[in-house]
């Protein structure tokens, strides 16, 4: 892939993530004026956020899987792919934003917010899937760092932009803010590049640069073998034809030359076959059937995740815990059990084994849930501490928390260096401990320096965890499963905050106050550190199994091993993928 195309892919990924992040933070600030102008109740205004969250959480994994499929829903059609899903998601998100800005009633706002959630679910896994396809695994950390830094800036700027727009032009302007960028990047993603033109001509989507390279190695090996055998025969005939006493050596040289070059040709062919076997393992078999889209599993997972988010949001609402919440939680459990049973029996599961079967991916997802739960729950509690206990106004509170966004940007930018030097395990464990320390500092802080220190520790820990854990999730999955991996990462980042806020609310309403709630959230961050120490890859253990198989095949094709296995020490720098 060319450098220009990678830059466009990175810009699209960053823009998609920023648009969605900015939309959520702006809406939070604009909700009071929206409630007054549309004469809505508090519960109706809450559903403008709850409906969006349920739609997003329910569809993220399904949307990621849809982008992974080489073909669309009908056999023989050209591939759908992450780029086209991103385009549909962004265009739909922009159109829904415009509709909300023109909505005549709160009912229309809620319905269009659900539509926004659907289109956001289509776009979000694609932002990570496009990065996984565009950048080699050993160069993923920096694009993820740029993406995380942009999200941090959007999260910090969102309340300011939302407050300014709500106080000035009105809450409708907050939604019109998304329309231009969403439509621009959505249309840009529809422009096909070289690889997609090949797909439209009927070429396999899984035909990658490494595949073409191994095929060339096989052809070169076979040609070299044939020429080498001819050369060895010529040398035997011409060099030793007149020397009867050494005729056996001539015959041996001819046979050895032929065997050696035929072996080299076979190793080249094996490299090509290894690449095609890897494609089959990554899900290229989904080319053959629409069964690659597990619709029953998608429905069960959507119901389960949607009910989980609804139950967690209800816990965080005043008076939300009741029989209805218990029923929703029970439905979530039943759907989850049914989903697990279905995935074990189906031939083509929604969650590929190379993703959920990886201990590193599972550990990274647990880390992301724990980190986002600890951060969101802490910010929820800290807001009440700053404004109710310490008597600060919203502007003064935002000044105290400014180090959070600043350190998050700096930490995300520096995380690739830490990953190269210390590995994912040590980097993530240290970052989670910093996050836990920041929560504990805020639990006892009252003065401005201590508050700023606590928020700075939160930002440094969370920014590092976001890049490190996301990199593990995305790079450990094969390219053909990148969308599912991205959907799982986004699901973790949606379930975690809901879990953290629900836990903080339950602890505060139980009469314990802020300190026990923050201590519990610090323990959650500590549990995330333990999960990272258990299964995340350490320094030097950066290759996925597919990368190791490819490297071994390439080493065998080069013929430099002398028949012995050579351990892989690191991925060779790739200019094209």
Describe what this molecule looks like in 3D.
This protein has 18 helices and no strands. 51% of the residues are buried. It is an all-alpha fold and 577 residues long.
Summarize the structure.
With 577 residues, this protein is mainly α. Helix content is 80%, strand content 0%. The chain contains 18 helices and no strands.
Overall helicity: over 70%
Instruction: Describe the global form.
Output: globular
Spans of at least 5 consecutive residues whose pLDDT stays below 50 are 71-79, 195-211, 231-245, 276-291, 542-577
Question: Which structural class do the helices and strands define?
Answer: mainly alpha
Please count the beta strands (DSSP E, at least 2 residues each).
Answer: 0
- Secondary-structure element sequence? HHHHHHHHHHHHHHHHHH
> Helix count?
18
Distance between the termini: 6 Å
- Integer-rounded radius of gyration: 28 Å
Portion in beta strands: under 5%
**Main sheet attributes: strand count, strand direction, barrel closure:** none
Question: Which features would summarize this protein structure in a list?
Answer:
mainly alpha, 18 helices, 80% helix, disordered C terminus
Write the topology of this structure.
Blueprint: H1 3-37, H2 42-68, H3 81-101, H4 106-134, H5 141-167, H6 171-189, H7 194-200, H8 209-240, H9 247-281, H10 295-316, H11 323-345, H12 353-356, H13 359-389, H14 394-444, H15 448-476, H16 482-512, H17 514-535, H18 545-558
